[in-house]
Amino acid sequence: MSNTTALPDWDTGWAMFLDVDGTLVDIEHHPDQVRAAPELKRTLVTATRALDGALALVSGRSIASLDRIFAPLCLPAAGLHGLERRDADGRVHYPGGYAERIAAARAELLGFVQSEAGLLLEDKGAALALHYRNAPQLEGACRRHMDAALRAAGADFHVQQGKMVLELKPSGHDKGTAILAFMAEPPFSGRVPVFIGDDLTDEDGFRAVNELGGLSVRVGAHPDTRAGIVAGDVAEIRRWLSASMERIDVSTA
């Protein structure tokens, strides 16, 4: 797909889906260091109002982690790459039955992570993320140990590649399936979907909105992206959102 660099003019007929790390906020050395600035929270409140509630966060983080970053906001959200989802009515959809298999995979990874400086094993409940951003020389070893964890978890699991992270998660759930689920429900249904993301894990979301005739925006260029629009960086996305909301406030004043 050919890419452009011009972000579109805001349309109140959109259904907006936003990745978080690397899209709305900068990636930090440790996931727990991430915070959303008050200005960003205010922008999201205005955007949600402008879209009549049709705005959701779609992230690899858990919903609990998203709520911590954006507190006191409690937005519709998909966490763990679509494995868990909170709809616009506040109901959380979450498949169970994975605890024992995740425990077996966790046991395969813990010793390795504890023996190597710079690695982080992020336990998300139904998913495990092995971060090697602070130890990039260990990528090969991380892949081997994650393969062992995948075998321990068994069928219906897979490993998702991200930016300096490998994530073990149940199959059949991704950001695209989460967006499709939102689009089947009010207030998202009947609107034009827009998804903004930055990572390989966001490509499923790009595919979903493209199939629905929506807009897909990738933060940072990538030769194999499905996104139709490429933005430069997180700061550009925040400026665009803020400026769009300022224009809406002026036009409705």
Give the topology, please:
Elements: E1 14-18, H1 38-50, E2 55-58, H2 63-70, E3 77-79, E4 84-86, E5 92-93, H3 99-115, E6 120-123, E7 128-131, H4 139-153, E8 157-162, E9 165-170, H5 175-183, E10 192-197, H6 203-211, E11 215-219, E12 229-231, H7 234-252
Helix pairs in contact: 1-7, 3-4, 5-6
How would you characterize the overall build of this protein?
This protein has 253 residues and is α/β, with parallel strands linked by helices. Helix 3 packs antiparallel against helix 4 (139-153). The longest helix is centred in the last third of the chain and has 19 residues, at 234-252. The N and C termini lie far apart (39 Å). The strands form 2 sheets. Strands 5-4-3-2-1-10-11-12 form an 8-stranded mixed β-sheet, with helices on both faces. Strands 6-7-9-8 form a 4-stranded antiparallel β-sheet, with helices on one face. The chain has helices at residues 38-50, 63-70, 99-115, 139-153, 175-183, 203-211, 234-252, and strands at 14-18, 55-58, 77-79, 84-86, 92-93, 120-123, 128-131, 157-162, 165-170, 192-197, 215-219, 229-231. The chain has 2 domains: 14-95 and 173-252, Rossmann fold (3-Layer(aba) Sandwich), CATH 3.40.50; 99-170, Trehalose-6-phosphate phosphatase related protein, domain 2 (Alpha-Beta Plaits). Strand 6 (120-123) and strand 7 (128-131) form a beta hairpin.
